[in-house]
Amino acid sequence: MAEDLYINAGSKTEKYRALLPQLKNLLAGEDDLIANLANVSAALKETFHFFWVGFYLVKGEELVLGPFQGPIACTRIRKGRGVCGTAWDKDETLVVPDVDAFPGHIACSSLSRSEIVVPLKREDGEVWGVLDIDSDDLGGFDETDARFLEEIGTNDFAVLSVFFLKSVRYGFFRHNMSESRFYEREYDSRFTIAHFFASSCPEVFFA
Q: Which of 7, 37, 44, 141 has a 20 to 30 A CA-CA distance from 119?
C-alpha cells in the first residue's frame, strides 16, 4: 500500500492523471470500506486543497454521512434535498458554481461557496452513495473535475468493486441468498473479492 502521495505540480488535468492510478494502487490491497473511503477523501483533499471532501452512503431514503475530510458536516440528507440529494435523485453529476443560487441548498457550512456531487453506482446503475466535494471559492469546479471524479463512481475504476462489495458486507444494501449469488456470479470474473466474501463470510451473504 502506498504511504506517500505524489502530487503533480502541473495543471488540474495533470494532477488528476497522476492521482487516479495512485488511488487504484492504494486501494488494491485493502477491502475495508471505511479505510478506502477515508483514504480517497484524504488523497483528494491533499492534492487539490478542497474545502471539504467526503462520501454519503444510501440507507433507505436517506444519504448518511461517511468518511470525510474537512469541517463537521450534515449527518443525513433526504433524497431530492440539497445538491447531494438531488444528484442522487437525478442520478447525475451536479456542478454548482454558486451554492447560494441552488434551490434548496443545505448549508452545512457557510464557508462553502461551490460544490460538485458525483453519484457512485453499482454495475446495474443503482446509486449506492455520492462523492461530495465543496470549495470555499465560487466556481471551484468544472467539467474537468466532473470527468475525472466520475471515474471513481464507475465500474471502470477498481475502487467501486471494493466499495460496493464491502457495502454489502456492512449491510448498506438489502440482500438475500439469490442476490448474493448474483453478486458473486457477476463480479467473480473481474474481482475475486465477491467470492472471498461469499466463501469466508457466509453470515454476511446468507444471514
A: 7
